[in-house]
Amino acid sequence: MKRIAIDMDEVMADFIPKQLKIYNRDYNENLTIDDLKGKKLRELRPHIKEELRKYFLDPTFFRDLEVMKDSQEVIKELSKSYEIFITTAAMEVPASFTAKYEWLKEHFGFLNDMNFVFCGDKSIIHADYLIDDNARHFNRFMGQGILFTAPHNINVTGYVRVNNWQDVRKYFLG
Amino acid sequence: MKRIAIDMDEVMADFIPKQLKIYNRDYNENLTIDDLKGKKLRELRPHIKEELRKYFLDPTFFRDLEVMKDSQEVIKELSKSYEIFITTAAMEVPASFTAKYEWLKEHFGFLNDMNFVFCGDKSIIHADYLIDDNARHFNRFMGQGILFTAPHNINVTGYVRVNNWQDVRKYFLG
Questions:
Q1: What architecture does CATH give domain A3-14+63-173?
Q2: What GO MF annotations does this protein's record show (chains A, B) (predicted)?
């Protein structure tokens, strides 16, 4: 059985709406997803990069993210024909460990938690495919990288790309 | 550069002395490491297996384990010639995430935390070697398994075995 590794933030978990909501509230702005096309918020507002990072130090930040549209149904379907592992760069935000684990158990309870992986450098992942919104993880990845479209990566080229979970379904299940 | 994945409990962290100390205190017994030869505590006292598991639900249990003799020096030495990843089955004890992370930062601060991996099923690990006290992790592991001697595994045969960190040094650095 071939194995698919799947990233969490901006792939399974809809990270941007919450980040924008909190940012707009605290900085009295009205940024939209369109403003984030081609870059991350920390690249758009580099002078407060460190302050933006502090949001993630709140252990609950990752607990109530919305589930990405269709991800539950498609991953459930994929899990009949593929081994599914969830591989998130949680080491970048150690405060997120528990929230990420609980979020997965709540929304993807049909997956085996022995297949959850909290890592940093994803070259450690032994899988045939990696679905991720950060192309840098594909550089040393052994298998096929699949770039999941997020605002920040829309100008990135040179990778297999899926725009949403229906695209993922088509790619793997035809 | 070849890559070595290293387990934590009973390989880097000396788990048994603390487990025995707490058990003996709470159950008014005098078990020693000799009693654990060939089995884990939960196999020696199967009728209280669930109660024993509860010790690990204390988020601090893994925080103050002793560092295994010579592990710091040898891992530091190995890290000059090999990529080192720490791969622990933390998903079996989600309450341990923070303690395990902090323990690694305290005692192995010279390692990059992007190379820490909290997982369950270790077949997800892409490495050339895996040093682990649980031989079951070698079954689907892609590389060479190296069994680190622990009381529970002394009767296990069929694997490359190292008895301590000086043996690890010899295996990799001759």
A1: 3-Layer(aba) Sandwich (3.40)
A2: 5'-nucleotidase activity
